[in-house]
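Tokens as discussed.
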């Protein structure tokens, strides 16, 4: 297919370059795609990994982490081939995950994939708000602990920080689409490397200072502090946290749609997935294992904001600042597909409505021409406000992260890629290849159900002692 760019103009007569399909010219590369993946993967999930390893122990924890990594990479390689159909190199583009499923499976599969994708993306954005607010609070509390001592309460309300992060996202959400966020992804990728490296470094220092913490080969099941059922719920929630840590399949197709066509997009995306997932796993393993070694069975739910680390306070503050900057970008990577879905639907529904289609252009120094529609501004503002309110109502970090991970992992990361691959390759039923792929899918389904049950149980327990909109750290 000829992918040469053509010249066009937007509604404000501003010259733009277009790809052959009429979309703005794609400029993404292996570097920007990898940055998008790392920004999405190494999100708030990395902060809960030491806690998750602590629940599962030295044996099951690393095995589960590597297993989630391998399954995600395998499914991502399969999914990358469906960006174009029917041919993965020269076929018609599918711009979103829903388009991919509709083109290859159609019918109810398309509807189910859409519900799963957008529910999960909304959940991710809520999770990023909770995590960012926790890090903002941690900066304030860290300074308080340094000034008044580690035994001081220094309790702080979370809501003002949740609202602050929401205001920032209202502004950033006015950026038109994911194609214009490449620079933000590079910056946030740098930030995630920084805060992950600090967490690993602080954990190593903690191990050197206090080497005799209690750890276990079998995690919470070696602890007599809680009932067997509570331990089981914690282990299930930990699996959900690990699944959440690899949740980028929701936006894989949208990331692939940013790539220029000078090389086949599926090949570049497979390379980006390999580099991004392997890099993420390296950091995950280092942070998870070192965090568990540092704190043992008392590992906090959030390694940077749970105050296992107090000193040097300025380094803890810096790490949490990096988390906030990182998740500022991650919110946008996950939010933009939701924005685009609603806006595209509105344009089809009301093609002549000025509220939806009329573009207003503004020149911003050092940025260039910035355009918006009234509907885009209103809808995206409402979306950010709603996700902010949900974060204020359910600010339970580990349980919420575990629930979203459980909901997202099986259908989007495993089921649909395997189902589409079997259909396209016409793999015979009950052949060896068909059997092991179906067995993998069923195993992941059981894991997701268990993680969801454990997380819901944790949220119910937390709600029993929680006052609505009165969250305090």
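Sequence:
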């Amino acid at each position: 297919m000829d992918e040469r760019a053509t010249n066009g103009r937007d509604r404000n007569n501003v010259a733009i370059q277009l790809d052959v399909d009429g979309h703005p010219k794609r400029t993404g590369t292996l570097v920007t795609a990898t940055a998008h993946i790392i920004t999405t993967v190494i999100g708030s999930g990395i902060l809960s990994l030491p806690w998750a390893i602590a629940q599962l122990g030295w044996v099951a924890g690393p095995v589960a982490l590597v297993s989630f990594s391998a399954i995600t990479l395998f499914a991502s390689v399969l999914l990358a081939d469906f960006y174009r159909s029917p041919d993965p190199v020269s076929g018609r583009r599918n711009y979103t995950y829903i388009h991919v499923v509709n083109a290859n499976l159609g019918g109810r599969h398309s509807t189910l994939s859409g519900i799963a994708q957008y529910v999960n993306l909304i959940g991710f954005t809520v999770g990023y708000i909770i995590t960012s607010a926790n890090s903002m609070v941690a900066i304030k509390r860290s300074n308080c602990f340094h000034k008044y001592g580690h035994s001081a309460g220094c309790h702080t309300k979370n809501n003002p920080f949740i609202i602050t992060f929401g205001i920032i996202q209202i502004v950033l959400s006015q950026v038109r689409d994911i194609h214009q966020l490449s620079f933000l992804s590079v910056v946030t990728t740098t930030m995630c490397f920084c805060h992950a490296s600090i967490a690993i470094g602080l954990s190593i220092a903690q191990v050197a200072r206090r080497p005799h913490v209690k750890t276990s080969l079998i995690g919470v099941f070696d602890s007599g502090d809680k009932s067997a059922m509570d331990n089981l719920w914690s282990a299930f929630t930990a699996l959900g946290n690990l699944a959440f840590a690899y949740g980028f399949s929701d936006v894989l197709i949208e990331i692939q749609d940013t790539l220029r066509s000078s090389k086949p997009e599926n090949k570049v995306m497979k390379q980006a997935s390999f580099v991004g997932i392997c890099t993420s796993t390296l950091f995950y393993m280092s942070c998870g294992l070192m965090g568990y070694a540092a704190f043992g069975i008392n590992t906090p739910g959030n390694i940077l904001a749970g105050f296992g680390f107090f000193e040097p306070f300025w380094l803890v503050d810096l790490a949490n600042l990096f988390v906030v900057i990182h998740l500022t970008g991650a919110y946008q990577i996950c939010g933009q597909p939701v924005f685009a879905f609603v806006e595209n639907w509105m344009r089809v529904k009301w093609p002549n409505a000025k509220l939806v289609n009329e573009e207003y252009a503004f020149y911003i120094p050092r940025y260039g021409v910035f355009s918006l529609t009234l509907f885009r501004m209103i809808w995206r503002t409402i979306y950010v406000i709603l996700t902010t309110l949900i974060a204020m109502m359910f600010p339970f970090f580990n349980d919420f992260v575990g629930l979203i991970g459980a909901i997202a992992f099986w259908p989007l990361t495993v089921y649909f890629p395997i189902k589409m691959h079997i259909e396209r390759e016409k793999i015979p039923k009950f052949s060896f290849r068909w059997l092991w792929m179906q067995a993998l899918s069923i195993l992941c389904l059981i894991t997701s159900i268990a993680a969801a049950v454990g997380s819901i149980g944790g949220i119910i327990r937390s709600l029993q002692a929680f006052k609505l909109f009165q969250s305090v750290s």
